[in-house]
Amino acid sequence: MSSIEIKGLTRDAGTHAMLVDMLIETVAAGGSVSFMHPLSRQAAGAFWNNSLMAAARGERAVLGAWDGAVLVGTVTLLLDFPPNQPHRAEIAKLMTRVDHRGRGVATRLMRAAEDLAVEKGRTLLVLDTATEDGASGLYERLGFNLAGEIPDFALKPHGGLTGTLLYWKRIGQLR
Questions:
Q1: What is the pLDDT of residues 27-85, one digit of tens each?
Q2: What is the 3-state secondary structure (H, E, C) of the chain?
Q3: Are the C-beta atoms of 105 and 1 separated by less than 8 Å?
Q4: What are phi and psi of 122, to 5 degrees?
Q5: 65-76 exposure pattern, b = at least 16 Cβ within 10 A, e = fewer
Q6: Are 9 and 62 in contact (CB under 8 A)?
Q7: What percent of the chain is predicted at pLDDT more than 70?
Q8: What are the structural domains, with CATH classification, of the chain?
Q9: Residue 157 above 80 pLDDT?
Q10: How far is CA 148 from the centre of its chain?
Q11: Is the separation of the CB atoms in 9 and 113 below 8 Å?
């Protein structure tokens, strides 16, 4: 995995197209990332347009994992919270291309997101993952603590309900 480079993403046509493809592939493979299968290119494109515009405004950071010229993974760090929560950030939309899974891409993305959160002065990270087929094992290996489970939280991409597991992790220096 030494050839994987993690960097912040901005909106350019090539990157946008790869993000759209990755989101559609993730949903088709059963990834619970807020969308239902089949996911249209238009809906995926609109999501990434909005996400990258929010990143340009500093409300979030969208990180990408590159294997040469190919985008193989992404994670979003949500940063825009109310005035009483300036100390926290949220992990969202962690995705790895199917052909790159099990190769450490998600771990590298998560570590980069955590480092960025610390840089931004955050001391608490939160996230959620589907109870069924989610990434709880990865998050627990990375030191996240299970806060609890909410049953029947969302529909799975191919139908049926799944719960969600809520996780948290203290990072950086506490204020």
A1: 999 999 999 999 999 999 999 999 999 999 999 999 999 999 999 999 999 999 999 99
A2: CCCEEEEECCCCHHHHHHHHHHHHHHHHCCCCCCCCCCCCHHHHHHHHHHHHHHHHCCCEEEEEEEECCEEEEEEEEECCCCCCCCCEEEEEEEEECHHHCCCCHHHHHHHHHHHHHHHCCCCEEEEEEECCCCCHHHHHHCCCEEEEEEEEEEECCCCCEEEEEEEEEECCCCC
A3: yes
A4: -85, 145
A5: bbbeeebbbbbb
A6: yes
A7: 98
A8: 4-170 (3.40.630.30)
A9: yes
A10: 20
A11: no
- Block residue for tokens 């771990």: 107
For tokens 């294997």, what's the residue? Answer: 67
Say if residue 170 is exposed, middle or buried (CB neighbours under 10 Å; 0-12, 13-18, 19+): exposed
With beta carbons less than 8 A apart as the criterion, state whether 140 and 146 touch. Answer: yes
pLDDT of 173 reads 77
Give me 114's structure tokens.
């955590």
For residue 175, name the pLDDT band (cuts at 50, 70, 90): low
pLDDT of 102 reads: 94
